Automatic annotation (TrEMBL):
GO terms for molecular function: transmembrane transporter activity. It is found in: Cell membrane. Keywords: Cell membrane, Membrane, Sugar transport, Transmembrane, Transmembrane helix, Transport. This is Sugar transporter. CDD domains: MFS_MefA_like (cd06173). It is a multi-pass membrane protein. GO terms for cellular component: plasma membrane. Residues 1-12 have a biased composition (Basic and acidic residues).
Length: 440
């Protein structure tokens, strides 16, 4: 597929045969822009997981306090809640490829910021660096979703989501697996440098992507009078437009509802899992990276399994089933006291997580107009990660008074119930699923 081909998702016929499925996968991998975007994601994600794992182990070694570990997640999630609502408005007004490129280059410098200080100042600078990295990620993520929407046709988005999830799983395996031994041998400085290099490599890949300007920057092709309008009122009104679209689109409302409760479990697990390793599994914290890596292997297996299922099942079934099974798995995980059993469960939990992620992307892109993609993604992410920020804050606070396994069990139960409820709330047919898009 030529890099500058104008892709219109409404001109492609449905693909039903196994031969056609194979052809679509082949076409996807001949799409130069998609390969570059997937490569950028894979490289950047490896650096992110390496960086995050190192910080968690490092800070817990320094403080042995759940609150200190939880502060890392608060610093990362806070920009999503504070900046996310308006980031999507600007992303829809800017060239999306340029937005991604600038965000990556700025994050190279921000990653290295903690190396400029030492002693007592380093810990607060780490939190500031993580917050700033999260802030620029709020512009990168919706820009990426908008760019992916125009370089991959609708019938290939399920396969694209599977590839994206596979890249994420590989990163989830490699990043944590090498983070703890490198931390032991070389300290945290190497992690900062590796993450900075990953952002640089990602920027290089994005710089090579070629998309026509009207696709990468749809706002620039509005009427001159409309494009000339500026000011805070326009930003507020455009955010309201995105919010209004989400609230009148049933699919997006159900996604937000289920995602909020799913992030409740994710926030608690991310914040307190390293504490769970030491207190309940009676294992050294240096094994935390291995636990994450095994979860990544499960996610990789899930990407393959659920990628095949995506050809047979509607994306809403993958999302609902994934959330329900994740909740059940977290409840079972909370009862573990043996490290080997926890490893096995982390592997199994990765499978429904992959299904959730593979179904999520196509559900959003298939019902969202191109010109609103940034705002819609920002609304969804703000809700999801804002709730995760609340979860991380509550978990780090309650973790001082309530046993970690009890917190995990409660969160898992809520997540499982959310998944089951969503099975009955999603539209039943593909026609219903996309009906909200027809009015815009």
């Amino acid at each position: 597929m030529h890099a500058d081909t104008n892709i219109d998702e409404h001109t492609h016929p449905p693909i039903n045969t196994s031969t056609s499925n194979t052809t679509e996968v082949s076409r996807l991998w001949r799409n130069r822009n998609f390969v570059l975007l997937a490569t950028a994601q894979g490289i950047s994600n490896i650096g992110d997981f390496f960086f995050t794992t190192t910080l968690l182990v490092w800070i817990f070694d320094l403080t042995h306090q759940a609150a200190a570990v939880g502060s890392i997640w608060i610093a990362e999630y806070a920009p999503i809640f504070l900046i996310g609502p308006i980031a999507g408005v600007f992303v829809d007004r800017w060239n999306r490829r340029h937005t991604m490129l600038i965000a990556d280059l700025v994050r190279v410098g921000l990653t290295l910021l903690p190396l400029l200080v030492a002693g007592a100042l380093r810990l607060p600078i780490i939190y500031i660096s993580v917050f700033a990295l999260g802030a620029f990620s709020r512009f990168f993520a919706p820009a990426k979703a908008g760019l992916l929407q125009v370089i991959v046709p609708e019938e290939q988005r399920g396969q694209a989501a599977s590839v994206s999830q596979t890249m994420m799983a590989i990163s989830f395996i490699l990043g944590p697996a090498i983070a703890t031994p490198v931390y032991t041998l070389a300290g945290p400085t190497v992690a900062l440098i590796i993450n900075a290099l990953s952002f640089g490599a990602s920027a290089l890949c994005i710089g090579l992507i070629r998309v026509r300007r009207e696709l990468a920057h749809p706002y620039a092709f509005k009427s001159q009078e409309q494009a000339a309008k500026q000011g805070i009122n326009l930003v507020v009104n455009e955010f309201k437009d995105g919010l209004g679209f989400v609230f009148k689109t049933r699919t997006l409302l159900v996604l937000i509802f289920t995602s909020l409760l799913a992030m409740l479990g994710a926030g608690a697990l991310n914040t307190l899992d390293i504490v769970f390793v030491e207190q309940r599994l009676h294992a050294p914290t240096t094994l935390y990276g291995s636990l994450m890596a095994v979860g990544g292997i499960g996610t990789l297996a899930g990407a393959v399994i659920c990628g095949l299922l995506a050809k047979k099942l509607r994306p809403q079934w993958l999302v609902s089933g994934g959330i329900a099974l994740l909740g059940l798995g977290l409840v079972v995980y909370s009862y573990q006291t043996v490290f080997l059993a926890a490893l096995i469960l982390n592997f199994l939990l990765g499978i429904p997580q992959a299904g959730l992620n593979i179904g999520f992307g196509p559900l959003v892109t298939n019902v969202t107009p191109r010109a609103m993609m940034g705002r819609v993604m920002s609304v969804i992410e703000t809700g999801m990660f804002g709730f995760s920020l609340l979860s991380a804050t509550l978990a780090s606070t309650l973790g001082q008074f309530i046993r970690v396994d009890i917190l995990f069990g409660i969160c898992g139960g809520l997540v499982g119930v959310a998944g089951l409820i969503s099975l009955f709330l999603f539209p039943r047919s593909d026609k219903q699923l996309s009906s909200a898009d027809s009015s815009l």
